[in-house]
Amino acid sequence: MESASEWPYQPVGEEFPSERWERLTGYAQGWYVTGPLAEAGFGYLAEIIDSVLASGVSDQLLVISSMHDLTVVPAHAKAGERESIFVVSPANYPTLRGHMGLAFWSEYRRWEYRQYKVEDAVDVFWEMVEEKFGILPTNG
Question: What is the chain's Cα-based Rg?
Answer without folding.
Answer: 14
